[in-house]
Amino acid sequence: MPSEIFTLKGESTGTDASGDFPLYSDLLYHDSAPYTPPTKVIIPFGMKAKIWAKRLAAEGETLFTISWAKDATAASPAWEVLDAEKLSSKGELWVEKRRPIVIRSLTGKEGFKASWSQPSTTPSKAYVELEVEITDEE
Fold first, then answer.
1. What's the whole-model pTM score?
2. Of 2.70.98, 3.40.30, 2.60.120, 3.90.20, which CATH number belongs to 4-135?
3. What whole-number distance in Å separates Cα of residue 27 and Cα of residue 43?
4. Best exposed site among 10, 29, 77, 83 by fewest CB in 10 Å?
């Protein structure tokens, strides 16, 4: 099966100090209105997700995390942080991975999400873009 590379984009509300980014992409299917975007991506059985690049931006101090769960379909998944970046003030950070973050799906229930956290006294807008490849190849 060929691999598929796509961009996931997310934006915080600007009023909450932490949360999971709602994820938007042309490959995320929806069929009802009003559309509530997903906050996690479930990796199909036997495939793997490779996160090749991330673009982070915020209007204030922000901690960005990428987390994964063995069963992201559970009511309360046990998320584990795979990667974290912190912007200490307003700004933007672009990180391309020579070796990507790889998340394998052995059961079809594994998934990942992107989150943000800010000081509770000064919530502000935060933005994320992830370049993701879904593939069955090494």
1. 0.90
2. 2.60.120
3. 13
4. 29
